Amino acid sequence: MTLKPILIHPDPRLKKVCDPVTEFDSDLARLADDMLETMYDAPGIGLAAPQIGLTKRLLVMDCAKEADGTPEPMVLVNPAVTWESEDKNVYEEGCLSIPGQYAEVERPKMVRVSWLDVEGKSHEEEFDELWATCVQHEIDHLNGVLFIDYLKPLKRQMITKKMQKLKREKARS
Question: What is the tens place of the pLDDT at every residue in 94-152?
Fold first, then answer.
């Protein structure tokens, strides 16, 4: 397995709408494993392919965060929200592509999502609470949307400026 570098906002690749995955082979399975390893190493609870520079509709997530808990890694290929609750939840969201920045985002409390696994088999499941927020956040990535896009323009600009500064500092070191 290989850790992948995670793109930092602003990067034009994070704003692209991703293409559906059409080939279900060992390369896709290996990519999913690499993405899970990268997500756990970061550490994070979700990672979408565009965050590692790939415009594929692929995401990984694991919201089982208890230190002594059993990991529950999930790989979703070509995911789509098929239903969302009218009830809303607000979570303080962060993003591996926007390190150190957090903001409250309101999203549907529950969603039903259909997706394929790395072998091309269909799945559908309802997610709620943190899992629902995470899957919506990651699907947003596949559509070129970042959590900061839900914020007021001034707050979004402030975060973008901080990320530009961070990227300059990283480039120097």
Answer: 999 999 999 999 999 999 999 999 999 999 999 999 999 999 999 999 999 999 999 99
Q: Give me the active site residues, please.
A: 138
Domain that holds residue 89: 12-172
Sheet with strand 74-84: strands edge to edge:
46-48, 58-61, 74-84, 110-116, 122-128
Q: Is pLDDT at 66 greater than 70 in this prediction?
A: no
In a domain, residue 159? The reply is yes
User: Is this model's pTM higher than 0.70 or not?
Assistant: yes
50 belongs to a structural domain: yes
Cβ atoms of 148 and 102 within 8 Å: the answer is: no
- For the CA atoms of 106, 111, 116, 117, what is the dihedral angle to 10 degrees? 80
Q: What is the CATH number of the domain that holds 42?
A: 3.90.45.10
Contact by Cβ (8 Å): 39, 46: yes
**DSSP state letter for 166:** H
> 64 near 72, Cβ under 8 Å?
yes
The verdict on whether omega for the bond into residue 5 sits within 30 degrees of 0, i.e. cis, is no
Count the domains in the chain: 1
